[in-house]
Amino acid sequence: MFQLFFHASEQILFQNFLSKERINYYLLFNSNNQLVASGGYELEEHPNTIMLTWGMVDASYHKNGYGRSLTEFRLNSISNTFPKSEVILNTTQKTFRFYEKFGFKLVSIKKDYYGLGLDRYDMIKSKIKNYVGPAGLEPATP
Predict the structure, then answer these.
(1) Does 88 score more than 70 pLDDT?
(2) In CATH terms, is domain 2-129 a member of 3.40.50.300?
(3) pTM score, two decimals?
């Protein structure tokens, strides 16, 4: 799953991320006990800032609600634990529209940041107190 969404050089960054103390990282399994998605968040050094991190869904499970459910779960967890925080993330041109559905706004684009043809899109969602999902919907379950 990792190699489908991230450049091979980022694997060591991912391993280093998982060894940090100030993170929450989640694995999402389907009813057959197969890993279908993962993602987490990290407390940033800047006060009241949380970063969504390393979110990914196995390509064979796209369009089944797993990514939405995992993102809603993470945002609700942040909202409950850090209600006055801003949430930031960086993603690519391939997935930034997905995060716009959750209220994230595009801040900047860095061309070829992750590799040739893979741009970095920085996004922010301001103060997510009482987050319940896009358009006020309750979090979905796949």
Answers:
(1) yes
(2) no
(3) 0.81
